[in-house]
Amino acid sequence: MQNPAFLPEIGLVRESVVLAHVGLGTTKWRTMVKAGEAPAPIKFSERLKLYDARAIRGWIDEHTKVAA
After folding, report:
1. What is the pLDDT at residue 64?
2. pLDDT at position 26, please?
3. Which of 3, 8, 25, 62 is the most buried (most CB within 10 A)?
4. 23 Ramachandran zone, left/alpha/beta (phi>0; psi -120 to 50)
């Protein structure tokens, strides 16, 4: 079985996986998404929203370079 917090190179992931990698809480992350400061999810239905793993990896890389 694969680690539930595994962030693949490509594909779609749930918000819980994203949060495990960005180090932010749900409220802060959603605020940043709403403000356009973080990648927005792809909405498949009212309850299912998934994030593009490549976009999340790019966002993480961009923000770790700024912090370093």
Report:
1. 83
2. 97
3. 8
4. left
Cα gap 46→65, rounded to integer Å: 35
The structure tokens listed for 48 are 């299912």
Domain ranges of the chain: 12-67
Residue 4 in 3-state DSSP? coil
Above 60 in pLDDT, residue 25?
Answer: yes
Check residue 68 and give its pLDDT: 55
Edge to edge, what strands does the sheet with 42-43 contain? 12-13, 49-52, 42-43
The phi, psi pair for 56, rounded to 5°, reads -65, -45
Output the average pLDDT for the chain: 91
Q: Locate 36 and state its tokens.
A: 């356009």
